[in-house]
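Curious: can you check?
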Amino acid sequence: MGSAGFPEEVAQEIRARYLETGHPFDLTIKQGCHLGDGYERGVTRFGVEGLVSQWDAAHVGISHEMNKLVRENKMRCHCLPQGVVVNLWREIAAGRPGLLTKVGLGTFVDPRNGGAKMNDVTDTEVVERVTFRGEEYLFYPSFPVQVALLRGTTADEDGNITFEHDGLINEGLSVASAAHNCGGIVIVQVERVTLRGTIKPMDVRIPGILVDYVVQATKTEACWQTQGTYYDPSFSGELRKPLDQIPPLPLDETKVIARRCAMALLPGGVTNLGYGMSAKVASIAAEEGCSDKVIFSAESGPIGGVPAPPPHFGNSYNASAIIEHNAMFDIIDGGGVDMTCLGMAQADEEGNINVSKVAGHPVGPGGFVDITQSTKNIIFCGTFMYKSKEVVEDGKLRILEQGKSRKFVRHVEHVTFSGRYAKPEQLILYVTERCVFRLLNGRMTLIEIASGVDLERDILANMDFMPDISPDLKQMDPGLFRETWGGLKAILGD
């Protein structure tokens, strides 16, 4: 995730080898979440026409050169739920036929809605709809793995791999097991090499019996810990960062949204935070002195501490535990997370959410599909419109200019979350700076409105559908719109 676990120097050499000799070519790349920094590092290194013919991933939005080839129909591409991707490796490693799950039903992944295909040229099938014991499921078949490209911190002479300087363990063990048991090869890039017998057995995350080649990096930029930093020991758990060193967020509409989302936090509950704006909820909790009232988690494996916003997303400051990526999705899929806060690019009248394909641009769901189908309380968040000009002042929101385009549309372009498949017991909110909606009886229902906002002019006139309006329509807390809020302790219990 991000730069974590990606063998940057190996990728650079593969690209250079292809440009020089034309080999290797026609590769199929399989990955979990986004890999890279959004500029030049990561999987985007493989974005040369002919090198890769198929790309299957949970997130493809930040690998720009690869993404361009997908948009130009020069590469087949599927986007699958992140938990499915990272847990499918274990099925392959164990020789099982695939993964059977309800994750993805009713979304763009469902074969009835496109089967996860992200462009016109994609003609291969990677998911099937089946009936098992009278219930509907999706089946994700196993596939052979010829090569695993991985990264850790240290290797010994026997190829045992550790992750002590990494903020995430990722799913490296399962990937290595899958490739090895398929008769493939496993290549692991590391920062350093040590003598055999000097690594504690409990510190080994990938055993040497699975590793064919160790590549010791020669460039520091090949081993970045996150998208935005080479190394921060508070991400790897080697030091603890004073939370007052985390800078407070500036007062703007995104901070208002993050504060309103924080109001839905559950004392002592386990809360997952998504990418972008939703990750700011952890910063709000820290700023309000409430980080100890909630247990934050990230789908990449950290539990506890304060999840970091981009460009360090997926890592957590001062985590109390860091588990394997796929193990975290076992917890999520089984209902072990109490609340999640995730972004939204589009919403429609049935409560469907799209984050996976916007204006024809393939992005992918990341862990969005898995998390929303299994979590009890879901908060979707985002600005009400794209590129509005707004000012937050004196407990009010002042709209200077309406947005360039709408987020609340009649039908979303891609169904990443299906309102129809929402469970009756799920609490589902849609939080913006102008208002708050709740999914009630399959309908988007307006329940709160910001002070300074006109219902007709600023909300209804900028939606493609007419929502239900609660007879008990409330005003959003004016404190959310002030420089200092101080209201979260009262909500979570002092």
Summary: The mean pLDDT is 95. Residues 249-492 form a domain with the Glutaconate Coenzyme A-transferase fold (CATH 3.40.1080.10). The chain has eleven helices and 32 strands.
